[in-house]
């Protein structure tokens, strides 16, 4: 159920922002999110409770979000769940790219120029690939190929 729900309402995001306190001058923040209308808060609370990690926040326009941004929780809880119960939509490609970024951050590779550039290359292919000002700051950015996701069938729930 949660995998199917994520195929419809989930997102794999990545924020890269200037941060002079960081070794490379940038903060890398991967985040898994499910967003719903506030009327469905009970459902979102159940999903969050199933995982035991993350936070629920209330945004504008009656939108609520459950998000997980702790690299530790992404590595130990979220990514293993979606490896065991894989997404079947095109969102699987975003998951695979997101997973690579989390691995790079978890292994501290984002603290090198090559690792930071690799993350930016991945961001250029993640979701809509919007780099904003990073496109100017990192002119050598080359989007990585998006993994191919071919729908075959809905897996047997048993």
TrEMBL record:
GO terms for cellular component: mitochondrion. The keyword tRNA processing does not apply. This is Homing endonuclease. Residues 2-101 form the Homing endonuclease LAGLIDADG domain. It comes from the Eukaryota. Transmembrane segments: none annotated. GO terms for molecular function: endonuclease activity. Keywords: Endonuclease, Hydrolase, Nuclease.
